[in-house]
Amino acid sequence: MKQKTISTLALLFLPIIVWAQMTFVPINVDYASFKETDSSAYVEVYVSIFQGNLTYNKQQDGVFQANFTNHLEVFDLNGNLVNRFAHNFKNTAHDTSQMSRYNQFVDIFPISLPYGNYKAKVRLVDN
Known about the structure:
The chain has one helix at residues 2-22; strands spanning 28-35, 40-50, 57-58, 64-76, 81-93, 104-114, 118-126. It is of the alpha+beta class.
């Protein structure tokens, strides 16, 4: 009976899992840090996304448009939020069939932080 219940639950959640995979947009993230002062570092967080992975909607004027937002949250090692950033972008194209899947959009978050260890959460929202 227990095995049958687990199988039934798996079948019920399968559409949700498939939908979540269809909406996944892969991003690439990297960072570099540089000495800024004796007590702080200048950090750049780089976020890139392939143009072909965005959702383009046809506008009234016939142009296709993608709107997306990059979010960055920086936390200290205790989990306290140090800073939060968001960059909004809009890209337009006249013809999506000629769009290269390999063109990348690159975003840079410049941050000044006191020396220490941090965690970062980066996410992209394809509006």
